[in-house]
């Protein structure tokens, strides 16, 4: 989170508005993840939502580790969604910086 705050300081107001707009569209919701866990946790619904496809498939085939894995996951969902959102925001910042014209140095 601190790394992204430092990266955002390098952006101008227009770039920052673009980053915030894109992040709002792409960010994952903790509420949605918990609701998916509540109703589809045994088959990995929250894992599919967060993009952990391989783990989600394992959860589906093992029925959430016979419920044990699904029960343990409830304690890690919030942190996992924050981590994913951090990566999403970092990616957006990098894309905006790359797409913006770089100031040329004139001698």
Give the SSE map.
Blueprint (H helix, E strand, L loop, with lengths): L1 H8 L3 H14 L3 H11 L4 H6 L2 H14 L1 H6 L3 H23 L8
Helix pairs in contact: 2-7
Q: What would your notes on this structure say?
A:
- The chain has 107 residues and is an all-alpha fold.
- It has a domain at 28-98.
- The chain contains seven helices and no strands.
- The chain has helices at residues 2-9, 13-26, 30-40, 45-50, 53-66, 68-73, 77-99.
- α2 runs antiparallel to α7 (77-99).
- The longest helix has 23 residues, at 77-99.
Q: Given the structure, what is the number of helices? A: 7
Number of strands: 0
Dominant shape:
elongated
Distance between the termini: 37 Å
Q: Which whole number gives the mean pLDDT?
A: 91
Describe the main β-sheet briefly.
Answer: none
The radius of gyration over CA amounts to 18 Å
Helix content: over 70%
Which range does the strand content fall in? Answer: under 5%
Class based on secondary structure composition and strand pairing: mainly alpha
Report the order of strands and helices: HHHHHHH
Poorly predicted sequence stretches spanning 5 or more consecutive residues: none
